[in-house]
């Protein structure tokens, strides 16, 4: 089978398409024929070496497709099932393996492209608004990169819940996309300081209940400065770079603030994972949540997909189609 592999870490040019033996599932694993793999920022961290991995290494954390083999001890999944997972490590391939506990069957009528496009980013947005800081009607939140994958889904979920949404974007085109998702206040941070803009909109209000920040290094300080006393900073990524160590006394000075650095992996244990999947895909099937697909790349052009994501040229979800 054809698969993307890297034998050294580095830029997108280290990604090559190779022929590999079709993998056999071990105990507790299933094999999936990949219909579509989703591109995520984390894939670039593994490719570049920001996150460690052993070489040679496949890429891709999520996909949707059809089960083609099940390993010993797997219950509840069969060959032919239409499934989604955000628990694989090599989905840029014709077939991949995943732990059965992180493979979920899909409701009828859900397109496999849409399922692949919403797994990792959709489940991330879901745990952030449901579990990390459970949003409620009337809460005020700031969501960075509001035209991006996680950001766009976060905005839609926050509006479904009834929160007031501030968001940042880097271009006028992205501002229109974020408004389309339902954001109440859209700030182009290239034209204005986003923290000043949020404070101006807030007027006498005490500050925001929560910031969902996946941009990291460039936005962390400003994000802390717009929280209300005892507000929550949910730092879930570092698209602009990782946040350097900082003085915890700043949390005191900012008003007994909370900071968390959550990861999807810690929010998917049974039975929570299945409940999350059921609610997320229920919203999508019911048409309450739109999953914009911003581009489709064949396996051989996966490196171009990485260049586009890192070059901030993408909106919505990028799929890699083996
Ligand atoms: N912790 C978790 O569980 C978890 C799970 C999934 C994803 N994540 C994280 O969530 C973040 C968003 O992921 P995504 O896949 O949805 O990506 P994305 O938001 O679709 O793309 C990244 C966006 O970040 C903004 N950005 C700001 N500064 C940037 C810079 N220096 N370089 C590149 N982009 C920059 C850009 O939007 P503008 O041009 O509008 O600024 C860009 O389009 C990533 O940091 C990812 O690692 C975390």
Task: List the SSEs and their pairings.
Elements: E1 2-6, E2 16-19, E3 29-38, H1 41-48, E4 57-58, E5 62-70, E6 82-85, E7 95-99, E8 103-105, H2 112-118, H3 120-132, E9 140-143, H4 149-161, E10 164-169, H5 172-181, E11 185-188, H6 194-202, E12 208-213, H7 220-225, E13 227-235, H8 249-253, E14 258-260, H9 272-285, E15 293-298, H10 302-310, E16 317-321
Parallel strand pairs: 9-10, 9-12, 10-11, 12-13, 13-14, 15-16
Antiparallel strand pairs: 1-2, 1-4, 3-5, 3-7, 3-16, 5-6, 6-8
Helix pairs in contact: 3-4
The structure holds NADP nicotinamide-adenine-dinucleotide phosphate.
NADP nicotinamide-adenine-dinucleotide phosphate binds at residues 40-42, 120-121, 124, 145, 147-151, 169-170, 174, 214-215, 218, 236-240, 262-264, 310, 312, 314.
Can you characterise this structure?
This protein has helices spanning 41-48, 112-118, 120-132, 149-161, 172-181, 194-202, 220-225, 249-253, 272-285, 302-310, and strands at residues 2-6, 16-19, 29-38, 57-58, 62-70, 82-85, 95-99, 103-105, 140-143, 164-169, 185-188, 208-213, 227-235, 258-260, 293-298, 317-321. The model has no long low-confidence stretch (mean pLDDT 96). The protein has ten helices and 16 strands. The strands form three sheets. Strands 3, 5, 6, 7, 8, 15 and 16 form a seven-stranded mixed sheet that branches. Strands 11-10-9-12-13-14 form a six-stranded parallel sheet, sandwiched between helices. It is α/β, with parallel strands linked by helices and 322 residues long. 29% of the residues lie in helices and 26% in strands. The termini are close together. The radius of gyration is 20 Å and the shape is globular. β13, α8 (249-253) and β14 (258-260) form a beta-alpha-beta unit. The protein folds into two domains: 2-121 and 267-321, Quinone Oxidoreductase, Chain A, domain 1 (Alpha-Beta Complex), CATH 3.90.180; 136-260, 3-Layer(aba) Sandwich (Rossmann fold), CATH 3.40.50. The protein binds NADP nicotinamide-adenine-dinucleotide phosphate. NADP nicotinamide-adenine-dinucleotide phosphate is lined by residues 40-42, 120-121, 124, 145, 147-151, 169-170, 174, 214-215, 218, 236-240, 262-264, 310, 312, 314. NADP nicotinamide-adenine-dinucleotide phosphate binds next to α1, α3 and α4.
């Amino acid at each position: 089978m054809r698969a993307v592999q890297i034998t050294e870490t580095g830029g997108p040019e280290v990604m090559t398409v190779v022929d590999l033996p079709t993998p056999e599932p071990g105990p507790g694993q299933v094999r999936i024929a990949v219909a579509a793999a989703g591109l995520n920022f984390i894939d670039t961290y593994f490719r570049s070496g920001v996150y460690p991995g052993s070489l040679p290494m496949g890429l891709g954390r999520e996909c949707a497709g059809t089960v083609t083999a099940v390993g010993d001890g797997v219950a509840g999944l069969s060959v032919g099932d239409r499934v989604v997972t955000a628990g694989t490590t090599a989905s840029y391939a014709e077939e991949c393996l995943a732990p059965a506990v992180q493979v979920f069957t899909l409701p009828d009528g859900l397109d496999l492209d849409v399922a692949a496009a919403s797994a990792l980013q959709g489940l991330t947005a879901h745990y952030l608004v449901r579990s990390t800081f459970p949003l409620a009607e009337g809460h005020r939140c700031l969501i960075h990169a509001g035209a991006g994958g996680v950001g766009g889904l976060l905005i839609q979920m926050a509006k479904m819940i009834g929160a007031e949404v501030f968001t940042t974007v880097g271009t006028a085109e992205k501002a229109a996309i974020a408004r389309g998702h339902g954001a109440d206040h859209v700030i182009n941070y290239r034209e204005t300081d986003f923290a000043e803009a949020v404070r101006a909109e807030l007027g006498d209000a005490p500050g925001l209940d929560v910031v969902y920040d996946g941009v990291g290094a460039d936005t962390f300080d400003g994000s802390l400065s717009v929280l209300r006393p005892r507000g929550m900073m949910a730092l879930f990524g570092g698209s602009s770079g990782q946040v350097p160590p900082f003085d915890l006394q700043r949390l005191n000075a900012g008003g007994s603030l909370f900071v968390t650095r959550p990861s999807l992996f810690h929010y998917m244990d049974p039975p929570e994972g299945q409940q999350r999947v059921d609610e997320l895909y229920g919203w999508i099937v019911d048409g309450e949540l739109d999953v914009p697909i911003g581009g489709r790349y064949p396996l051989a052009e996966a490196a171009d997909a990485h260049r586009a994501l890192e070059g901030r040229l993408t909106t919505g979800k990028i799929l890699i189609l083996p």
